[in-house]
Design goal:
Layout (H helix, E strand, L loop, with lengths): L1 E6 L5 H14 L4 E5 L6 H5 L13 E3 L5 E3 L5 H8 L1 E2 L5 E4 L12 H14 L10 E5 L5 H4 L8 E6 L3 H17 L3 E9 L2 H11 L5 E4 L2 H9 L3 H4 L4 H12 L8
Parallel strand pairs: 1-7, 1-8, 2-6, 2-7, 8-9, 9-10
Antiparallel strand pairs: 3-4, 5-6
């Protein structure tokens, strides 16, 4: 299973991505979680500790043209071996550099470029084909448009029942569908009433593959900076995402 999680900012992408990754690992899959956001998110939703040094910094070097490139000998397998960090349940997390109070924006460009080059080589790596891959993309349509998930067979489109989220979801779905490389599977998130699901499905013109309820446990996990699975492992949200894993790919969106 190779999926990318997309949607509007604040839609709940990181919580869903982190939970799906750990659920996949618990069923025995080797799992690689990919985080291209320069802000913290996926590592917290996985329950992982921030790495001591910016990921992938050591994998990049400047070429003769001044642009960042991967150092010789570093492909996707070696990048995962050397620069991915451990997360709970055996998940491996590969992420770009984050803005912080010590380094500021220094880790961003080299690690982000290295990350981009690594993920574009992932689909061609026989050693990683048996892995499940869960990518958490930054908010909005930009990363889908600029091919930041070339590994994805399915884009899980996280949609809240708000007009801003609906409009963003429709735009992302059109971009992905026009590229023609993956399917789009909508997930209704933060649902409080049946009318929320109806609104999402009517607007997008397709049934949601999963309905994830609004749940105080998610707010608690995010407030404390911990994984939902470590706060409410038997809760309604986790149950909904377990159902999503069972049906993923069965509900797709066309333009």
């Amino acid at each position: 299973m190779h999926v990318a999680i997309v949607g509007k900012g604040g839609a709940g992408k990181s919580v869903i991505a982190g939970t799906l990754a750990r659920l996949l690992a618990r069923r025995g899959d080797p799992v690689l979680a990919l985080d291209s956001d320069t802000l913290p998110g996926l590592e917290l939703s996985l329950g992982a500790r921030p790495p001591a040094t910016p990921p992938l910094m050591a994998a990049a070097e400047r070429g003769e043209d001044g642009r960042w490139r991967l150092k010789k000998g570093i492909g996707p397998v070696r990048a995962v071996q050397r620069f991915a960090t451990d997360a709970p349940d055996g998940v491996r997390l590969l992420q770009s550099g984050k803005v912080d109070s010590v380094e500021g924006t220094k880790p961003i460009m080299p690690s982000l470029q290295a990350f981009y080059l690594v993920i574009h080589r992932l689909p061609r790596s026989p050693a990683l084909r048996r892995w499940s891959v869960v990518g958490d993309l930054p908010a909005g349509p930009r990363q889908a448009a600029y091919d930041w998930a070339p590994y994805a067979e399915t884009y899980v489109l996280v949609v809240e029942p708000t007009m801003q989220s609906l409009l963003a979801a429709r735009r992302i779905a059109r971009i992905v569908s026009q590229r023609g490389q993956a399917t789009v599977t909508p997930v209704a998130n933060k649902v409080r009433r049946r009318a929320d699901v109806t609104r999402i499905q009517d607007f997008l013109g397709v049934c949601a593959a999963a309905v994830v309820p609004a749940d105080p446990a998610v707010a608690t996990a995010e407030r404390e900076g911990v994984a939902l699975l470590d706060v409410d492992p038997e809760g309604r949200v986790v149950a909904a995402l377990e159902g999503l894993l069972a049906t993923l790919g069965g509900s797709t969106l066309t333009p």
